């Protein structure tokens, strides 16, 4: 298909065909990533600006690496050391970026809708690297890419996503994307962390993890976002881990060869045991590698790359 979108703001408005096209484009990108020499001239002369208002290690570094491999000029605004710390608004920061004539802006922001806001005011393409509790589309895309590497077609695959659904933009993007790709998605968590409105995404919801593990092809543990928590949402970390933490022993209840994913960073011993995180069932390191490939694909598509990416 011919790629026509200028922005990637979320998966809610992407079609199955568009998602498939991104994942297909990521395949040759991963081949490039696994080469001894990774530098390409594909996007020479294109510029990518990274604007992260929230802390990030994996996502920011992944985007920076992806852009550099493709030959783009990359730069980052360290928000804590920028004029934002002096009270500059997002709009004024956007105007400053626009004056630099960059081609792409990758933004992470604590406010839901921040990426869409930038898309209204900038000529540059916008990639949402996580906006509040709304979406984290590139994480969901790399998760789906990792699943496809294991299973191929996702139609009919059972994916169980466990934990802090309330605060998780990863869960929302995965729910939108996976259901469009034909997977059966079940969201599991304590009642206080499982908002009823998530049913509108076409997913099953449950508070009983043990009852949902049977037949699961993929189990994804979400980080318990302690920095966003309000008091009283669950009795204690110990109780949470007992009911919703996953381990190799608990995973035997799936009755099949199940893979384990985690968007990171992990709270070992809370949502996932160390022995499971370090086991062959866990594809967590593969997710990180695939994240670079998927973000290479998006930068390539949005920057209008037309040359042979494998050259």
Identify the CATH architecture of the largest domain. 3-Layer(aba) Sandwich
As laid out across the biggest beta sheet, the strand order is 7-6-5-8-9
Top CATH class of the largest domain: Alpha Beta
Measured on Cα atoms, how large is the radius of gyration?
Answer: 19 Å
How many discrete structural domains?
Answer: 2
Summarize the main sheet: 5 strands, parallel
Ranges where pLDDT stays below 50 over 5 or more residues in a row are none
Helix content: 25-40%
Integer average pLDDT: 92
* SSE run: HEHEHEHEHEHEEHEHHEHH
Report the strand count. Answer: 9
Care to describe what's here?
- The longest helix has 19 residues, at 284-302.
- The protein has 311 residues and is of the alpha/beta class.
- Helix 1 (16-33) packs across helix 11, helix 2 crosses helix 11 and helix 5 crosses helix 11 (284-302).
- The strands form 2 sheets. Strands 7-6-5-8-9 form a 5-stranded parallel sheet, covered by helices on one side.
- The mean pLDDT is 92.
- It has 11 helices and 9 strands.
- It folds into 2 domains: 16-135 and 288-302, 3-Layer(aba) Sandwich (Rossmann fold); 137-286, 3-Layer(aba) Sandwich (Rossmann fold), CATH 3.40.50.1370.
- The protein has helices at residues 16-33, 58-69, 90-99, 114-121, 137-151, 169-180, 209-212, 237-244, 248-251, 274-277, 284-302; strands at 47-52, 73-78, 104-109, 125-131, 158-162, 184-188, 204-206, 218-221, 259-261.
- Helices cover 37% and strands 14% of the residues.
């Amino acid at each position: 298909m011919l790629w026509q979108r200028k922005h990637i703001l979320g998966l809610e408005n992407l079609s199955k065909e568009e998602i498939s096209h991104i994942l297909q484009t990521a395949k040759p990108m991963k081949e490039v990533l696994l080469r001894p020499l990774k530098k390409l001239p594909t996007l020479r002369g294109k510029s990518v600006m990274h604007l992260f208002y929230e802390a990030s290690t994996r996502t920011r570094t992944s985007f920076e690496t992806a852009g550099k491999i493709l030959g783009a000029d990359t730069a980052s605004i360290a928000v804590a050391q920028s004029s934002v710390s002096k009270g500059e608004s997002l709009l004024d920061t956007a105007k400053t970026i626009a004056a630099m004539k960059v081609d792409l802006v990758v933004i992470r922001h604590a406010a839901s809708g921040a990426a869409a806001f930038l898309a209204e005011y900038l000529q540059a393409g916008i990639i949402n690297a996580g906006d509040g509790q709304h979406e984290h589309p590139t994480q969901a895309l790399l998760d789906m890419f990792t699943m496809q590497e294991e299973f191929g077609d996702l139609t009919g695959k059972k994916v169980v996503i466990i934990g802090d659904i309330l605060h998780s933009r990863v869960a929302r993007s995965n729910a939108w994307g996976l259901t469009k790709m034909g997977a059966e998605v079940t969201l599991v968590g304590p009642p206080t962390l499982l908002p009823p409105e998530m049913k509108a995404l076409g997913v099953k919801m449950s508070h009983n993890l043990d009852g949902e593990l049977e037949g699961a092809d993929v189990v994804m543990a979400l980080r318990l976002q302690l920095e966003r928590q309000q008091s009283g949402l669950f009795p204690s970390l110990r109780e949470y881990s007992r009911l919703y933490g996953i381990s190799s022993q608990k995973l035997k209840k799936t009755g099949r060869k199940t893979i384990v994913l985690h968007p990171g960073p992990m709270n070992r011993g809370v949502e996932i045991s160390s022995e499971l995180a370090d086991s062959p069932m866990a594809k967590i390191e593969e997710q990180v590698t695939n994240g670079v490939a998927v973000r290479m694909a998006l930068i390539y598509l949005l920057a209008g790359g037309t040359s042979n990416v494998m050259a």
